[in-house]
Specification:
alpha+beta
């Protein structure tokens, strides 16, 4: 499965070449970009909820 980026998030097969699938490098790039964007927002009460499914590969993204 190719890396899919949409308004609802990102999706892809774990591992493989960065930019083609969902590699650890891709996860770091997307999360750091989101964190940088959050810091630019004027609202000081920021909360982020992170969830994952129960697949084995989920622990690579969120332990």
């Amino acid at each position: 499965m190719a890396l899919i980026k949409s308004i609802s998030g990102i999706r892809g097969t774990i591992g493989g070449k960065p930019g083609d699938t969902l590699s650890p490098l891709d996860v770091v790039k997307f999360t750091s970009a989101y964190g940088s964007w959050l810091k630019l927002q004027s609202n000081t009460n920021k909360k982020v909820v992170v969830g994952r499914d129960g697949r084995i590969s989920g622990s690579m993204v969120w332990p």
